[in-house]
Design brief:
With 95 residues, the protein is mainly alpha-helical. 46% of the residues lie in helices and 0% in strands. The protein has helices at residues 21-29, 43-54, 61-73, 85-94. It holds the Pfam family Cdd1.
Length: 95
């Protein structure tokens, strides 16, 4: 597993686990400019906002990436984004 910064050392979106330039651009597109803004957010609502804002349906794996970033900022261990795939599939099936 890659080495991550300590949570209190994270100052940019790109410092977050699983967030690179493209993921950071997606977050900025929906108004999330600082990592701490992720706390308390709904990854599914973030995904829907991204799709609405860009006028395109994004890969559902983006939800997994958003889940990983939100959960990490809320105190979870830094897990690979695909660790959230099963949860996302359950969430979409029940919704």
């Amino acid at each position: 597993m890659p080495k991550y910064l300590e949570r209190d050392a994270i100052t940019q979106l790109e410092d977050l686990p699983n967030i690179g330039k493209a993921g950071a651009a997606d977050l900025r597109c929906i108004g999330i400019l600082q990592p701490e803004q992720l706390i308390g957010k709904s990854p599914l609502q973030m995904y829907e906002a991204l799709c609405a804002k860009t006028g395109a349906r994004h890969d559902p794996c983006v939800i997994d990436v958003f889940m990983s970033a939100v959960r990490y900022m809320e105190g979870a261990e830094p897990l690979p984004w695909w660790s959230y795939t099963a949860e996302r599939k359950r969430l979409l099936k029940s919704g």
